[in-house]
User: Fold this.
Amino acid sequence: MTPSTPQPLAPASTPPDRLRNFCIIAHIDHGKSTLADRMLQITGIVDARQMREQYLDRMDIERERGITIKSQAVRMPWVSDGSMYALNMIDTPGHVDFTYEVSRSLAACEGAILLVDAAQGIEAQTLANLYLALENDLTVIPVLNKIDLPAADPERYADELASLIGGSPDDVLRVSGKTGMGVGELLDRVVADIPAPVGDPDAATRAMIFDSVYDAYRGVVTYVRMVDGSLKPKDRIEMMSTGAVHELLEIGVSSPEPTPSQGLGIGEVGYLITGVKDVRQSKVGDTVTTARNGATQALDGYTEPKPMVFSGLYPIDGGDYPDLREALDKLKLSDASLVYEPETSVALGFGFRCGFLGLLHLEIVRERLEREFGVDLIATAPSVVYRVVLDDGSEIDVMNPSEYPTGRISTVHEPVVNAAILAPKDYVGTIMELCQSRRGVLRGMEYLGVDRVEIKYTIPLAEIVFDFFDHLKSKTAGYASLDYEPAGDHEAELVKVDILLQGDRVDAFSAIVHKDKAYAYGVLMTGRLRELIPRQQFEVPIQAAIGSRVIARETIRAMRKDVLAKCYGGDITRKRKLLEKQKEGKRRMKMVGRVEVPQDAFIQALSGDMEKKKDEK
Assistant:
């Protein structure tokens, strides 16, 4: 595709009626980043020589996996009906684990492009993002992407989209992010349909922080959406939640590279640099105002993200603990949904108990810590927060199996989620069988069109954080999609399974599981550890126990020296005497010996590598 002639940039402080703020929302892999690439080309903001695929995805990990992890804002010029407009576009992630990124992007916009793959149709996260946009009172523009694919069925999915949003199928735009077909008409539609931002230019300055990143050379870079008033270089600004006052060293817009400007006015989206290195002074959701004659009423911030999955992160080398703390502080700046607090483990030493929005979020954070900050980590098995009620009526929130009380327990409550699964109708039986095996309760079923069905279940969160999505994809030939949201908690029969090595409890391997699955977990972990822990000079029992009751056991046989080698003749009693002497020595050694679990055994046992190796065999 040949890009159009580059258009001149809109002035830095654009009148509000010439501004349009919008984001692109869709299910994962429906072409958001590709469509954003074409918009950058058509508006001439990126030179043809510099253009590359997934231009706005800045991290290597995003390019390798082909997914967007971090929302990216960019300002583009566009001429419509002879007038110059400035379009502030935010490319958002599509995976359910990064919904918090999407919610913050929506709060900085007046409109959203709802993108649907013309070959796959509406999927679970499409619906979830649509409801988020409607909650924020945004103008939604329905768009079918990938209409150039041979498998595309735009007429059918345009009907689906129109019935979902309300309106005519003719209102649904057809575009191709790959070829650029229809992208110009889409930008004209953005200008025509999405309202201009509203604010008071004479009121005290207020700007909402919707994102921030850490730059090793320039310190904290804060991204803001202006609501009232204006900001200029050299202004002294105040963060309203912390009261910290800084001088603005640079102010500008992302176009798509950072471009300094003479200031930001109502409705504009841009960045601020103050040179501050303390990452805690730029909190997402905070209100920025001027230090002199500043605002007294802060803007409504964002709802704090609620972690769904918890896991312990420990440095393999104990000396890296301070580095891990600093790395988490910096990562928290660009990932506001990450929650962490220090914790210690007898087996693993000092580390952090971290809260994540899902298993992919955990995986991405761990990989970013290892790549960007060079810290080698062990992650403990993911767990959720349990509410334990004791006999005396007191309650304890348990995030780590080692915190599980040993006293008299009245009830245990586990978090549940409302899951929505979209799939072709042929897979309904398979999906229901999978959900019921995970203790799911059917809430309802709704047909979206002729052959697509949405199945709603209430499922314990602990049952879906491990491998539920993998099983769902494999059982539905990859057609099913999943979305879920918290739905409180309910009472369940849960027990804590401890793993004991020679009678000593190893806290890193403990887990809280449902009573019916305790035996399976015990057999799995004892069998796994028997293969991973090297043989000792004495026999080592590996036991899985609930309280004082052992439910599974494996034994690592002792290494035996051939003490009969020198006894080449004589009576059998001489041989028996030597064997008895060795047996007594082994017994004494067992009483004083300690089992050292190698670091590799921890890593493989907790990551599940053993299962992969068995599958490969």
Observations:
- The first helix runs from residue 32 to 42.
- The first strand starts at residue 19 and ends at 26.
- DSSP finds 15 helices and 29 strands in the chain.
- The CA atoms of residues 161 and 533 lie 56 Å apart.
